[in-house]
Protein backbone atom coordinates (compact mmCIF):
# COMPACT_ATOMS: atom_id res chain seq x y z
CA UNK A 1 0.00 0.00 0.00
CA UNK A 2 2.78 2.36 1.06
CA UNK A 3 4.39 2.22 -2.24
CA UNK A 4 1.51 4.10 -3.87
CA UNK A 5 2.74 7.65 -4.35
CA UNK A 6 -0.38 8.69 -6.25
CA UNK A 7 -3.92 7.34 -5.95
CA UNK A 8 -6.69 8.50 -8.25
CA UNK A 9 -10.19 7.05 -7.90
CA UNK A 10 -13.28 8.14 -9.82
CA UNK A 11 -11.80 11.50 -10.78
CA UNK A 12 -14.20 13.80 -12.58
CA UNK A 13 -13.76 17.33 -13.87
CA UNK A 14 -16.08 19.44 -16.01
CA UNK A 15 -15.62 22.93 -17.42
CA UNK A 16 -19.14 24.42 -17.48
CA UNK A 17 -21.10 21.74 -19.38
CA UNK A 18 -18.05 20.11 -20.93
CA UNK A 19 -16.87 16.96 -19.13
CA UNK A 20 -13.08 16.96 -19.52
CA UNK A 21 -12.38 13.99 -17.18
CA UNK A 22 -14.83 11.18 -16.48
CA UNK A 23 -14.26 8.45 -13.89
CA UNK A 24 -10.47 8.24 -14.19
CA UNK A 25 -8.73 5.68 -11.96
CA UNK A 26 -5.03 4.88 -11.64
CA UNK A 27 -2.19 4.53 -9.12
CA UNK A 28 1.45 5.45 -9.47
CA UNK A 29 4.00 3.48 -7.48
CA UNK A 30 7.22 4.69 -5.90
CA UNK A 31 10.09 4.79 -8.37
CA UNK A 32 7.94 4.50 -11.49
CA UNK A 33 8.10 6.65 -14.58
CA UNK A 34 4.40 6.83 -15.39
CA UNK A 35 3.31 8.19 -18.76
CA UNK A 36 0.04 9.88 -19.66
CA UNK A 37 -0.61 9.60 -23.38
CA UNK A 38 -3.48 10.97 -25.36
CA UNK A 39 -4.41 13.12 -28.33
CA UNK A 40 -4.89 16.88 -28.01
CA UNK A 41 -7.69 17.71 -25.61
CA UNK A 42 -7.79 14.24 -24.03
CA UNK A 43 -7.42 15.64 -20.52
CA UNK A 44 -3.73 15.07 -19.72
CA UNK A 45 -2.95 18.58 -18.50
CA UNK A 46 -6.22 18.75 -16.55
CA UNK A 47 -5.32 15.49 -14.79
CA UNK A 48 -1.75 16.58 -14.04
CA UNK A 49 -2.86 19.98 -12.74
CA UNK A 50 -5.43 18.39 -10.43
CA UNK A 51 -2.70 16.11 -9.02
CA UNK A 52 -0.43 19.13 -8.58
CA UNK A 53 -3.13 21.00 -6.65
CA UNK A 54 -3.43 23.67 -9.34
CA UNK A 55 -7.03 22.76 -10.34
CA UNK A 56 -9.96 21.60 -8.29
CA UNK A 57 -11.63 18.31 -9.23
CA UNK A 58 -15.43 18.02 -9.15
CA UNK A 59 -15.37 14.54 -7.66
CA UNK A 60 -13.05 11.69 -6.81
CA UNK A 61 -10.60 10.45 -4.21
CA UNK A 62 -7.09 11.74 -4.86
CA UNK A 63 -3.95 11.34 -2.80
CA UNK A 64 -0.52 12.52 -3.81
CA UNK A 65 2.27 11.68 -1.33
CA UNK A 66 -0.59 10.96 1.11
CA UNK A 67 -1.93 14.53 0.77
CA UNK A 68 -5.21 15.71 -0.72
CA UNK A 69 -4.13 18.15 -3.46
CA UNK A 70 -7.41 20.07 -3.36
CA UNK A 71 -7.06 20.88 0.36
CA UNK A 72 -3.30 20.71 1.00
CA UNK A 73 -1.94 22.23 -2.19
CA UNK A 74 0.62 24.43 -0.48
CA UNK A 75 2.19 21.60 1.52
CA UNK A 76 2.11 19.39 -1.54
CA UNK A 77 3.80 21.92 -3.78
CA UNK A 78 6.81 22.00 -1.44
CA UNK A 79 7.21 18.25 -1.87
CA UNK A 80 6.75 17.87 -5.62
CA UNK A 81 8.62 19.24 -8.61
CA UNK A 82 6.77 20.73 -11.55
CA UNK A 83 8.54 21.48 -14.81
CA UNK A 84 7.08 24.88 -15.64
CA UNK A 85 6.54 25.85 -19.24
CA UNK A 86 8.85 28.60 -20.47
CA UNK A 87 6.14 31.23 -20.27
CA UNK A 88 6.13 30.90 -16.47
CA UNK A 89 9.47 32.73 -16.21
CA UNK A 90 10.04 36.52 -16.42
CA UNK A 91 11.92 37.44 -19.63
CA UNK A 92 14.70 39.35 -17.93
CA UNK A 93 15.60 36.86 -15.19
CA UNK A 94 19.03 35.28 -15.63
CA UNK A 95 19.75 31.58 -15.21
CA UNK A 96 21.65 32.25 -11.97
CA UNK A 97 18.89 34.49 -10.58
CA UNK A 98 16.23 31.91 -11.39
CA UNK A 99 18.17 29.21 -9.54
CA UNK A 100 18.87 31.54 -6.57
CA UNK A 101 15.20 32.51 -6.40
CA UNK A 102 13.84 28.94 -6.51
CA UNK A 103 16.37 27.67 -3.99
CA UNK A 104 15.72 30.60 -1.62
CA UNK A 105 12.02 29.72 -1.79
CA UNK A 106 12.84 26.17 -0.74
CA UNK A 107 15.44 27.41 1.80
CA UNK A 108 18.32 25.46 0.26
CA UNK A 109 21.68 26.52 -1.18
CA UNK A 110 21.59 27.24 -4.94
CA UNK A 111 22.07 24.01 -6.90
CA UNK A 112 24.86 25.14 -9.20
CA UNK A 113 25.76 21.44 -9.66
CA UNK A 114 22.47 20.96 -11.48
CA UNK A 115 23.12 23.87 -13.83
CA UNK A 116 26.41 22.24 -14.64
CA UNK A 117 24.81 18.80 -15.05
CA UNK A 118 22.29 20.32 -17.46
CA UNK A 119 25.01 22.20 -19.31
CA UNK A 120 23.88 25.69 -18.38
CA UNK A 121 27.07 26.78 -16.58
CA UNK A 122 28.06 29.02 -19.49
CA UNK A 123 24.65 30.70 -19.47
CA UNK A 124 24.54 31.78 -15.83
CA UNK A 125 24.24 35.47 -16.69
CA UNK A 126 22.05 35.02 -19.76
CA UNK A 127 18.52 36.38 -19.54
CA UNK A 128 15.71 33.91 -19.97
CA UNK A 129 14.41 35.32 -23.25
CA UNK A 130 17.83 34.84 -24.83
CA UNK A 131 18.01 31.10 -24.05
CA UNK A 132 17.28 28.55 -26.77
CA UNK A 133 14.21 26.32 -26.44
CA UNK A 134 16.39 23.43 -25.28
CA UNK A 135 18.15 25.61 -22.70
CA UNK A 136 14.81 26.88 -21.38
CA UNK A 137 13.58 23.31 -20.96
CA UNK A 138 16.79 22.28 -19.21
CA UNK A 139 16.51 25.25 -16.86
CA UNK A 140 12.87 24.39 -16.13
CA UNK A 141 13.93 20.84 -15.28
CA UNK A 142 16.81 22.05 -13.07
CA UNK A 143 14.40 24.26 -11.12
CA UNK A 144 11.84 21.47 -10.82
CA UNK A 145 14.34 19.04 -9.29
CA UNK A 146 16.49 21.47 -7.26
CA UNK A 147 14.83 20.66 -3.93
CA UNK A 148 15.11 16.89 -4.58
CA UNK A 149 11.37 16.22 -4.68
CA UNK A 150 10.16 12.65 -4.32
CA UNK A 151 7.72 13.17 -7.21
CA UNK A 152 8.21 15.15 -10.40
CA UNK A 153 5.65 16.18 -12.99
CA UNK A 154 6.87 16.74 -16.53
CA UNK A 155 4.36 18.08 -19.06
CA UNK A 156 5.78 17.31 -22.51
CA UNK A 157 9.37 17.58 -21.31
CA UNK A 158 11.05 17.26 -24.69
CA UNK A 159 8.56 18.94 -27.04
CA UNK A 160 10.37 20.92 -29.74
CA UNK A 161 13.81 19.66 -28.72
CA UNK A 162 16.40 18.37 -31.15
CA UNK A 163 17.55 14.75 -30.98
CA UNK A 164 20.67 15.49 -28.92
CA UNK A 165 18.89 17.65 -26.33
CA UNK A 166 16.14 15.06 -26.14
CA UNK A 167 18.49 12.19 -25.45
CA UNK A 168 20.37 14.29 -22.85
CA UNK A 169 17.10 15.02 -21.08
CA UNK A 170 16.19 11.33 -21.21
CA UNK A 171 19.51 10.52 -19.53
CA UNK A 172 18.74 12.99 -16.73
CA UNK A 173 15.23 11.56 -16.30
CA UNK A 174 16.69 8.06 -16.00
CA UNK A 175 19.25 9.23 -13.45
CA UNK A 176 16.44 10.72 -11.39
CA UNK A 177 14.63 7.40 -11.50
CA UNK A 178 17.82 5.58 -10.44
CA UNK A 179 17.97 7.91 -7.42
CA UNK A 180 14.45 6.75 -6.47
CA UNK A 181 12.43 9.69 -7.79
CA UNK A 182 8.94 8.97 -9.08
CA UNK A 183 8.12 10.73 -12.35
CA UNK A 184 4.81 11.39 -14.06
CA UNK A 185 5.05 12.71 -17.57
CA UNK A 186 2.71 13.56 -20.38
CA UNK A 187 3.95 13.36 -23.92
CA UNK A 188 2.90 13.12 -27.55
CA UNK A 189 6.15 11.39 -28.40
CA UNK A 190 5.34 7.66 -28.45
CA UNK A 191 8.93 6.56 -28.91
CA UNK A 192 9.89 8.61 -25.86
CA UNK A 193 7.09 7.11 -23.77
CA UNK A 194 7.88 3.59 -24.94
CA UNK A 195 11.53 4.01 -24.07
CA UNK A 196 11.24 5.83 -20.75
CA UNK A 197 8.12 4.80 -18.92
CA UNK A 198 7.44 1.83 -16.67
CA UNK A 199 3.67 2.15 -17.19
CA UNK A 200 1.42 4.15 -19.44
CA UNK A 201 -2.21 5.25 -19.32
CA UNK A 202 -3.88 6.23 -22.58
CA UNK A 203 -6.48 8.96 -22.12
CA UNK A 204 -9.16 9.56 -24.71
CA UNK A 205 -11.97 12.09 -24.27
CA UNK A 206 -11.27 12.20 -20.55
CA UNK A 207 -11.34 8.44 -19.98
CA UNK A 208 -8.55 5.92 -19.56
CA UNK A 209 -8.95 3.47 -22.43
CA UNK A 210 -5.80 1.42 -21.76
CA UNK A 211 -3.25 1.11 -18.97
CA UNK A 212 -0.20 -1.09 -18.53
CA UNK A 213 3.49 -1.41 -19.31
CA UNK A 214 4.40 -0.42 -22.88
CA UNK A 215 5.04 -4.13 -23.54
CA UNK A 216 1.65 -5.15 -22.17
CA UNK A 217 -0.10 -2.58 -24.33
CA UNK A 218 1.69 -3.53 -27.52
CA UNK A 219 1.32 -7.28 -26.83
CA UNK A 220 -2.48 -7.08 -26.64
CA UNK A 221 -2.95 -5.38 -30.01
CA UNK A 222 -3.89 -6.92 -33.32
CA UNK A 223 -0.55 -5.82 -34.76
CA UNK A 224 1.75 -8.56 -36.00
CA UNK A 225 5.16 -9.22 -34.52
CA UNK A 226 8.04 -9.14 -36.99
CA UNK A 227 10.52 -12.01 -36.61
CA UNK A 228 13.70 -11.86 -38.65
CA UNK A 229 16.02 -14.85 -38.72
CA UNK A 230 19.43 -15.32 -40.35
CA UNK A 231 20.96 -18.79 -40.46
CA UNK A 232 24.17 -20.14 -41.89
CA UNK A 233 22.65 -22.39 -44.58
CA UNK A 234 19.34 -20.52 -45.18
CA UNK A 235 17.40 -23.76 -44.74
CA UNK A 236 14.07 -21.91 -44.20
CA UNK A 237 12.99 -21.84 -47.82
CA UNK A 238 9.49 -20.89 -48.98
CA UNK A 239 8.15 -24.44 -48.66
CA UNK A 240 8.73 -24.59 -44.92
CA UNK A 241 5.42 -24.22 -43.13
CA UNK A 242 5.80 -22.03 -40.02
CA UNK A 243 2.85 -21.78 -37.57
CA UNK A 244 1.03 -18.50 -36.73
CA UNK A 245 2.59 -16.69 -39.68
CA UNK A 246 0.35 -14.55 -41.83
CA UNK A 247 3.00 -13.09 -44.10
CA UNK A 248 6.64 -13.73 -44.94
CA UNK A 249 9.38 -12.20 -47.05
CA UNK A 250 13.10 -12.18 -47.69
CA UNK A 251 15.08 -9.12 -46.66
CA UNK A 252 18.83 -9.12 -47.30
CA UNK A 253 20.11 -12.28 -45.63
CA UNK A 254 17.08 -12.53 -43.31
CA UNK A 255 13.90 -14.59 -43.59
CA UNK A 256 11.19 -12.32 -42.19
CA UNK A 257 7.95 -13.67 -40.69
CA UNK A 258 4.96 -11.60 -39.48
CA UNK A 259 3.43 -13.60 -36.66
CA UNK A 260 0.19 -13.50 -34.70
CA UNK A 261 1.81 -15.60 -31.94
CA UNK A 262 5.54 -14.89 -31.72
CA UNK A 263 6.28 -17.51 -29.01
CA UNK A 264 4.87 -20.29 -31.21
CA UNK A 265 6.58 -19.01 -34.36
CA UNK A 266 10.01 -18.53 -32.76
CA UNK A 267 9.97 -21.93 -31.11
CA UNK A 268 8.97 -23.63 -34.41
CA UNK A 269 11.72 -21.78 -36.27
CA UNK A 270 14.36 -22.81 -33.73
CA UNK A 271 13.18 -26.44 -33.77
CA UNK A 272 13.34 -26.46 -37.56
CA UNK A 273 16.85 -25.07 -37.93
CA UNK A 274 18.12 -27.34 -35.16
CA UNK A 275 16.65 -30.40 -36.89
CA UNK A 276 18.28 -29.29 -40.15
CA UNK A 277 21.64 -28.54 -38.50
CA UNK A 278 21.51 -24.97 -39.74
CA UNK A 279 23.31 -22.78 -37.17
CA UNK A 280 21.59 -19.56 -36.06
CA UNK A 281 23.46 -16.35 -36.84
CA UNK A 282 20.88 -13.77 -35.73
CA UNK A 283 17.27 -13.64 -34.55
CA UNK A 284 15.28 -10.41 -34.06
CA UNK A 285 11.79 -10.07 -32.65
CA UNK A 286 10.08 -6.69 -33.05
CA UNK A 287 6.75 -6.07 -31.42
CA UNK A 288 4.39 -3.53 -32.97
CA UNK A 289 5.34 -0.10 -31.65
CA UNK A 290 3.40 1.78 -29.00
CA UNK A 291 2.50 4.29 -31.68
CA UNK A 292 0.82 1.59 -33.80
CA UNK A 293 -1.01 0.29 -30.73
CA UNK A 294 -2.04 3.82 -29.71
CA UNK A 295 -3.52 4.47 -33.15
CA UNK A 296 -5.29 1.11 -33.04
CA UNK A 297 -6.84 1.79 -29.62
CA UNK A 298 -7.87 5.36 -30.36
CA UNK A 299 -9.33 4.48 -33.77
CA UNK A 300 -11.32 1.56 -32.32
CA UNK A 301 -12.72 3.78 -29.55
CA UNK A 302 -13.54 6.66 -31.90
CA UNK A 303 -15.53 4.25 -34.11
CA UNK A 304 -17.34 2.53 -31.20
P1 LIG B 1 -3.08 18.82 -25.20
O1 LIG B 1 -2.39 17.57 -25.60
O2 LIG B 1 -3.64 19.52 -26.39
O3 LIG B 1 -2.29 19.69 -24.29
P2 LIG B 1 -4.62 17.73 -22.98
O4 LIG B 1 -4.80 16.25 -23.09
O5 LIG B 1 -3.60 18.22 -22.03
O6 LIG B 1 -4.43 18.36 -24.42
P3 LIG B 1 -6.49 19.36 -21.48
O7 LIG B 1 -5.69 20.62 -21.61
O8 LIG B 1 -6.53 18.70 -20.16
O9 LIG B 1 -6.08 18.31 -22.60
O10 LIG B 1 -7.99 19.71 -21.94
C1 LIG B 1 -9.04 18.74 -21.89
C2 LIG B 1 -10.31 19.40 -22.42
O11 LIG B 1 -10.76 20.37 -21.47
C3 LIG B 1 -10.11 20.13 -23.74
O12 LIG B 1 -11.26 19.92 -24.54
C4 LIG B 1 -10.00 21.59 -23.34
O13 LIG B 1 -10.49 22.46 -24.34
C5 LIG B 1 -10.87 21.65 -22.10
N1 LIG B 1 -10.37 22.66 -21.15
C6 LIG B 1 -9.15 22.69 -20.56
N2 LIG B 1 -9.03 23.76 -19.74
C7 LIG B 1 -10.21 24.44 -19.80
C8 LIG B 1 -10.72 25.61 -19.20
N3 LIG B 1 -10.00 26.31 -18.31
N4 LIG B 1 -11.97 25.98 -19.51
C9 LIG B 1 -12.72 25.29 -20.38
N5 LIG B 1 -12.31 24.16 -21.00
C10 LIG B 1 -11.07 23.73 -20.73
Classification by helices and strands? alpha/beta
| Fraction of residues in helix | 25-40%
Under CATH, the topology of the largest domain can be stated as Rossmann fold
List the secondary-structure elements in sequence, H or E. Answer: EEEHEHEHHHEHEHEEHEEEHEH
CATH level 1 name of the largest domain? Alpha Beta
Domain unit count: 2
The CATH superfamily of the largest domain appears as P-loop containing nucleotide triphosphate hydrolases
Low-confidence segments: none
The total of helices stands at 10
Main-sheet strand order equals 5-6-7-3-8-9
Strand fraction equals: 25-35%
What is the number of beta strands? 13
CATH structural architecture of the largest domain? 3-Layer(aba) Sandwich
Mean pLDDT: 90
* Small molecules in complex: adenosine-5'-triphosphate
* Sheet having the most strands: 6 strands, mixed
Structural notes for this entry:
Helices cover 34% and strands 29% of the residues. By secondary structure, the chain is α/β, with parallel strands linked by helices. The chain has two domains: 4-219, Rossmann fold (3-Layer(aba) Sandwich), CATH 3.40.50.300; 225-287, Alpha-Beta Plaits, CATH 3.30.70. It has a six-stranded mixed β-sheet, sandwiched between helices. Strands 11-12-10-13 form a four-stranded antiparallel β-sheet, covered by helices on one side. The model has no long low-confidence stretch (mean pLDDT 90). It binds adenosine-5'-triphosphate.
Amino acid sequence: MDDKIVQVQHLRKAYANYVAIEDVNFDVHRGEIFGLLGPNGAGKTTTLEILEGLRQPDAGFIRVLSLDPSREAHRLQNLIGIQLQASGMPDSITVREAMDFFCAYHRIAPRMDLLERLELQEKLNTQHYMLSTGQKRRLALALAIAHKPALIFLDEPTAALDVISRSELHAVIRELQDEGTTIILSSHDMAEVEKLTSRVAILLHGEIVAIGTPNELTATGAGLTKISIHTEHSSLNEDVNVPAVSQRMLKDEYDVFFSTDPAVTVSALLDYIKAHQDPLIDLRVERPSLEERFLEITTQKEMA
